[in-house]
Amino acid sequence: MKLIAAALSAVLWAAALSGCATNSSDEDVTVYAASSLTDAFVAIGEAFEETNPQYRVHFNFAASSELAVQINERAPADVFASANEAQMQVVLDAGNAGAPAVFTRNELALAAPADSDVVTVFDDIAAPGAIIVAAAPDVPVGELFHRAMDALLTSGVRDQAFLDAVTANLASEESNVRAVLTRVELGEADAGFIYATDLAIAGDTVRRILMPAEARLSSAYPIVAIGDEPTEGATAFITFVLSGAGQAVLTSYGFSQP
Predict the structure, then answer these.
(1) What is the pTM of this model?
(2) What is the pLDDT of residues 51-75, one digit of tens each?
(3) Do 108 and 216 meet the contact criterion of CB atoms below 8 Å apart?
(4) CA 5 to CA 118: how far, in whole Å?
(5) Which domains does the chain have, with CATH numbers?
(6) Cβ distance 224 to 91 under 8 Å?
(7) Structural Rg of the chain based on CA atoms
């Protein structure tokens, strides 16, 4: 990294001495996107820039709830990609965006450390002493977790005693899905509720615990250009995400078709 930085500095210094300047027609596109989109959107950003060299994409990844607040406080976002429609609605209700489009879906999943045998089947999350982590309720994957628990109860697949035991084992509610995954990977939790896409990213460090069908809920991901007059770059980026090329990248990272 130091060698790369040094080389880059040398190039920039030489350009300055020769009176060169960067292309002034390049346009920055600032994309605020849910944490669960990090890897897929970085790949999409690279592919987008290759086919649209006039644009430069900059990402801000965080929990959708946090991003919605930032956008409503007039953060310099051109595009917002949320992990659920509820947080997108927060931005829409404030009048800060136009009509969004759902571009992908993601399924709730339960993960355990690969080298741990504390949680080997779904019901183990209710066993005394099990350490379970999830995201906070205002974070899309956390909201999905609570909906899944409610679905188990209302369907009669699990009873209130089971839910009470899981709640007692809930050690923390993290600020985003990547924080949940990290705690599971480090062995700080016996199991955590994440997205299916996070399982693919984690690889061999975690293993998936099968859940009852009633708990296998998914979340729709909407995307929108920010402001009354979206920039050409924002429109171009959203068009690319919705295109066959963008959808192929999302599928390769474990996302589902919208």
Answers:
(1) 0.83
(2) 999 999 999 999 999 999 999 999 9
(3) yes
(4) 45
(5) 22-105+220-252 (3.40.190.10), 106-218 (3.40.190.10)
(6) yes
(7) 21
